[in-house]
Every structure is written in C-alpha cells, then in structure tokens.
Amino acid sequence: MFELLFLGTSASAPSVHRGLSGLIVKHDEYRFLVDCGEGTQRQILQSGVGFKKLTRILITHGHLDHILGLGGLMSTFLRWEAIDELEIFAGRSAMERISDLLFKVVLRNTKPPMPLYLREIGPGRFFEADDFTVTAFPVSHRGPDCLGYLFEQKSRRPFLPEKAEALGIPPGPVRRDLVNGQAITLADGRLIQPDEVLGPEQIGVRLAVVGDTGQTDDLLPFVSGADALVIESTYLESEAEMARQFAHLTARQAAELAVQAGVKRLFLTHISRRYRERDVLAEAQSVFPEAVVVRDFDTYIIKREN
C-alpha cells in the first residue's frame, strides 16, 4: 500500500488555490518527496506531515517550478528544523542545477546542517527496501535527463497461520524461515515445505509518478498495468498545439495514456491556472471516467483491489 499526499498541483506558477509541484509518497515508515517547487516547505507544515522523515527527495527534472523549493527547505534546515540526513535523487542535468542552488546560493561555503547526499541517477532501479523498490524511467520533456518514478511492492505469498497451527509449527524463527521460502525440520523430524503454509502469490501494488512530459508512447512500457498513475495535465485539447510546442500534455492525452496502459486510477496534476478545474476533469473523464483532478492537500490510498 502507498499513500499519496499532494502538496502542490499548479503548473509553472502558483495560483490562489494551488502551489507548485510537490508530492509525498508514503509507505510504512518511508517518506519520499517527489519534486520541490517554491513554497513546498510551507505546504509541508500546513499538511501536518512534518519534516523528520522526509529524508529522500526525488526530482523529475530541473525546471525551476520543480526545484526552487529546495533552497528554502535547506535554509530552514540551517536555522529551524533538523533531520538526520538528506538524499536528493535526480538526473545529471537537474542535479547540476540543484548543486548550484544549494552550494552557490544557499550554503555558500557553509557546511550543510546534516549529511547531504546528491545522488545522480539514470533510468533503472535505485532504491530497494525489504518489501518495495523504486525505479527511475526516462521521460520526454524539454531538456535531457528527465525522469519518472515507479514504486513497486514486491510480490509475496501470505503466511497462513491456521495451516501452521494444524501442522504443529511453533511460533518463532521457523515460521520466518518458511515465509522466506526455506524448508524446515521440526523437532519430531518432520520436513515442512513452504508450500504447505503459504497462500497463492499476491502481486504488489504499482504506482507510477510522471512529472512534465511531452509525449506518452514512450511511457507505456513503464506505466502499463499500474494501480495508479500520477501525471501532468497542463493543457486542454483546444490548445494541443501549444501543449506540443512546450512539451506538455492535454487532459485528453493523459487520459488516453491511462486507457492504453490499463491503469486502474488516474490522478491529474500540474494544472494551468488558465483553465477551470471542471473543464480539465470533463475532458479527461470523457476518455477515462475514473480520472481525478487533484488539489493541494488531497490524500489517497493506493492498494490492490481484490
């Protein structure tokens, strides 16, 4: 299960009701901040989520509306808030800009207030925990090294305690070994195989997060079958040529991708203040009825439905 908390949902510039790009993805004790537009730290405070566990920031690309909040965040860490460490993940082009912002503007020969790691990444898996992974994939926008992120729970076979009880398997390490796929030998000499106490394999939840993008066909291999897709929707189809010129999507294009990819839920963000929300929603829902136009501070639980 993943939880989404949208901090900023506006495109390019903030509006009265929408801040600049920022999304928190939660999984158990893990917190990932995806993009950090100007004003993100205030959105974090207003959301009540706090800074303590926000130790990993994933940047989709280096445009200012997606990274400027890093300067304010670092300034706050210098004076008011404290975290154990901070890792920032981004492609090469974005990381060069982030490094200049932090070290040449904010810090300026001052030591970071915490261990700070700038992790330059490319497409591929870059984070793995016991039960989920995070993989970066290439995205086509203006400029090089733009990335999307795929959060995937690992498949698992649930332990069936009633079967373990029937077989007389005691609680403790032997049950853990069975969960890990290892056969065990009981004190009476019986050999127990994992299949005897494990249920059918359950496919893990898949969440795809895309920042700004100008095309969708290259995204299909990475977002197909996702339980949820978060993606930009900057323009309406009436201005499709402008969308193409600036390498953004229309609401219709985002919805068409959702249909082609067979995703279960579609969350549209990066909404231009030139449009009414209801018009964006109507265009998307005419193609993908379950589309949602998200707002700042909206939260959603992403889990696999039975």
Helix fraction, binned, reads 25-40%
Low-confidence stretches: none
User: Count of helices?
Assistant: 10
Q: Distance between termini? A: 13 Å
Account of the protein in words:
The protein is of the alpha/beta class. The protein folds into two domains: 2-156 and 201-302, Ribonuclease Z/Hydroxyacylglutathione hydrolase-like (Metallo-beta-lactamase, Chain A, 4-Layer Sandwich), CATH 3.60.15; 161-196, no CATH class. The chain is built from ten helices and 16 strands. Helix 3 packs across helix 4 (92-107) and helix 9 packs parallel to helix 10 (277-285). It starts with a strand and ends with a strand.
Compact summary:
The protein is an alpha/beta fold and 306 residues long. It is built from 10 helices and 16 strands.
